[in-house]
Amino acid sequence: MESTTAKLLIVDDEKRMCAILREALVTPRLAVTTAESGEAAWAALTLERFDVIISDIKMAGISGVELLKRVKASWPETEVLLMTAYADARTAVEAMKSGAFDYIIKPFEIDELRLKVRNILEKRQLRIENLDLRVQLKERFSLENMVGQSGAMQKVYELVEKVAPTDATVIIRGESGTGKELVARAIHQRSRRADQPFIAVNCSALPETLLESELFGHEKGAFTGAERQKPGRFELAGIGTIFLDEIGELTPATQIKLLRVLQQREFVRLGGTETITMQARILTATNRDLEEAVRSNTFREDLYYRVNVFPIMLPPLRDRVEDIPALADHFLAKQNSQTAGIDAGALHSLMEYNWPGNVRELENIIERALIMSGGKQITAEDLPVHLRHSGENAPAPARGVGEIPTLEEMERRLIDKALEKAEGNKSLAARLLGITRRQLYSRMERWGEGGEDENNEPEE
Fold this sequence. Notes:
The model is unreliable at 391-403 and 451-456 (pLDDT under 50). Helix 13 packs across helix 15, helix 17 (407-421) packs across helix 18 (426-433) and helix 18 crosses helix 19. The protein has a five-stranded parallel beta sheet, sandwiched between helices. A five-stranded parallel beta sheet has the order 7-10-13-6-14. It has three domains: 6-136, Rossmann fold (3-Layer(aba) Sandwich), CATH 3.40.50.2300; 143-313, P-loop containing nucleotide triphosphate hydrolases (Rossmann fold), CATH 3.40.50; 319-456, Helicase, Ruva Protein, domain 3 (Orthogonal Bundle). It has helices spanning 15-25, 38-47, 64-74, 89-97, 110-140, 151-163, 180-189, 208-216, 233-237, 252-264, 290-295, 301-307, 324-334, 344-352, 358-373, 385-388, 407-421, 426-433, 437-446, and strands at residues 6-11, 30-35, 52-56, 79-85, 102-106, 170-173, 198-202, 217-218, 230-231, 241-245, 266-268, 275-277, 281-286, 310-313. The longest helix has 31 residues, at 110-140. The chain is built from 19 helices and 14 strands. It has 460 residues and is α/β, with parallel strands linked by helices.
């Protein structure tokens, strides 16, 4: 029944009753303590935390009801089950208004008491599992798991932190694959709506007729095949968050309906007449140039101003290449990889590539390379051919049009980037490059920069 041991406190001024109940309820997963007065129970509570308390109502000194009130004031998650004589049942009912989980009338069957305790413990376990799930969700979509420490990403983190606690409509802009939905989920998880639904809709993935039904729902008989009423995504979101991805792909007709939702906070199901109030927060995203779409009359100007309240621009991966080593490590960890990492040659190829598919493309490349390496250290040979020769796809070389830097120059440039990211710590820089510290020193010695004694620097 329980995955963790729970603690139960029995409180009754009859010593024999305490002993009987303890014998009946104690199990390997339920530790039972007894107290023969309200005062003794309170003393035990100040020393130890209990999950469940079973207490008689009528006791000299601190009564069961008084104990209940004290417990709920100090430990509201502790559940209290009261025992009472039939004549005092009204008192027990009143006590439930003060937070008692339930009551049981004396004399009672032990099996009845066991059932009530089991119900309490099942509720406790469900609460623990829900808390664990919330923690996992917050960790999964928190800013800490949005990988990248570049200046461009720091600006994104700052904007997310500022807008998340508000109800402002947010538009997340950026090329395909930059992580727009991840940002939307991070905003939701850091908002006061975090315990409510997060509903994502890809506006480009559905034809207009289906999209309207998905967003607004439909009534039975609204169209051929509508055999029952179906709530739409706006309705399902409740007081949570709805995320409209690729909003720039909406047709003019759907744009008009969405505009009404944003302006009046209400909508009507397809084929229906009932007006439904929309309470969810709206987040949107697009990879289109909405300003150009407005100029070409493919996106409504009034809708543009409604969704463009708080824009967040995600940088393409080619503009934050310094984040690539950390991203690559993150994706390796995501695959539960035991590989030795990525060697310098492969990392060089990754950092010189132009990344038209952005972070999503990098994740796919890392997954493929891990398979090709057979779980060993990823080398340039494990990467697709177009990445191994990525100089053709990279931005123009720094030394002049058509000039190709030598391998030694590129190696030195890569090591300089690693040292900069590691703030001069050579052990950490070597790990970022996928080489040993001794190999890093050997390369630096060739340039006359390896004079320091490597043993003077502690391992990280």
